[in-house]
Amino acid sequence: MTKTAKKGEQKVKISVRELYKIFGDDPQSVLEYAQQGMGKTEMLEEHGHVLALQDINVDMQEGEITVIMGLSGSGKSTLIRHFNRLIDPTAGEIIVDGDDVLAYGEEELRKLRRERMSMVFQKFALLPHRTVLENVGMAQAVRGYRRADFEADANKWLERVGLQGYGGQHPHQLSGGMQQRVGLARALAANSDIMLMDEAFSALDPLIRTDMQDLLLDLQEELSKTVVFISHDLDEALKLADHLVILKDGYIVQQGEPQEILLRPNDDYIVDFISDINRARVLRTRSVMIETTEPAEGVAGDVDADDNLESVIAKSEGDTTKKYRVLQDGEQVGVLDMQTLVRALVPSQASESGMRAAAV
Q: 64, 87, 112, 286 — which has fewest CB within 10 A?
């Protein structure tokens, strides 16, 4: 994944505008209350309806990983199911490649799900009576292709996810981590521009989960898919996200580049959320450096713009008097001194505006 991709080369792939989702007997009858700011608890107590999503506005860039995260009940899984219209909103717009998917008829919607979006599920969702290869080639089979037509492509993706030679096995013969690799290969074999991943790695053991995250990043570096990834784990979100969206009780608390959120949380909720994060492991030199292309004097060496601060601390051997030239693609983009780095490791407090908002 290229965290420093040039924004001028990107376009908005998915745009969500003023999205509301209310569950209950008559959602339209209470929509106005939600639009006026009534929260989830009030909506349930006063009107017996569940306000799942409230005024969601997000732009997801082509070729980036957008991570939508929050605790249980925050609305993240409900939101992702709107993109391929497994759930229809109570109000709002969902624009994909400039098209309003809410206006799609049955045939257009079928094509969206089969060809333009693929999905990786938390529970793998493999067909137990089909072989691994048949599971991977399922999208092509649904489109009418014979096994002979998709077998080579399916085997290619199995090899890419580290399962070469397992095509003849059945899902029950594989471990959980291997089954999730099959799910990822199936999504890749569908050759869709957009991948929806709903807590895809949360059922895996920690070490296998880390391996799957690394695999996704390696594949993304090459394929540049538009990925929407749902997670309740902040470490995972910070590792994967180009754009991070944090939900609470169905509304967006903060969204943006993960480094920016970590350095400048705008709400007490976010401050609490990030309080236990190892900032040295997550923060990058590009986020705390002084931007300059002027020749740097007295530097102790060079560091990369995407190096984490932990690696710079190790390089400096803890000497806070040192400073480093920061390079990106071999060119100087800034200077980082160790005292600035140390200050960045002190957790930020919520901004005054965020504090006031939390107190209301």
A: 87
SS3 of residue 74 by DSSP? coil
Phi-psi region of 6 (alpha: psi -120 to 50; beta: other; left: phi over 0): beta
Instruction: Give me the tens of pLDDT residue by residue for the chain, a chain 360 residues long.
Output: 344 444 456 799 999 999 999 999 999 999 999 999 999 999 999 999 999 999 999 999 999 999 999 988 899 999 999 999 999 999 999 999 999 999 999 999 999 998 899 988 777 678 889 999 999 988 888 777 788 778 888 999 999 888 989 999 999 999 888 888 898 889 888 889 999 998 888 878 888 889 889 999 999 998 999 999 999 888 899 999 999 999 999 999 999 999 999 989 998 999 988 888 888 988 999 999 999 999 888 999 999 999 999 999 999 998 999 999 999 999 999 999 999 999 998 876 544 444 444 343
User: Two tokens at 348?
Assistant: 């930020």
State the pTM of this model: 0.85
Please state, in angstroms and rounded to a whole number, the distance separating the CA atoms of residues 27 and 15: 23
Given a contact cutoff of 8 angstroms between Cβ atoms, the answer to whether 19 and 56 are in contact is: yes
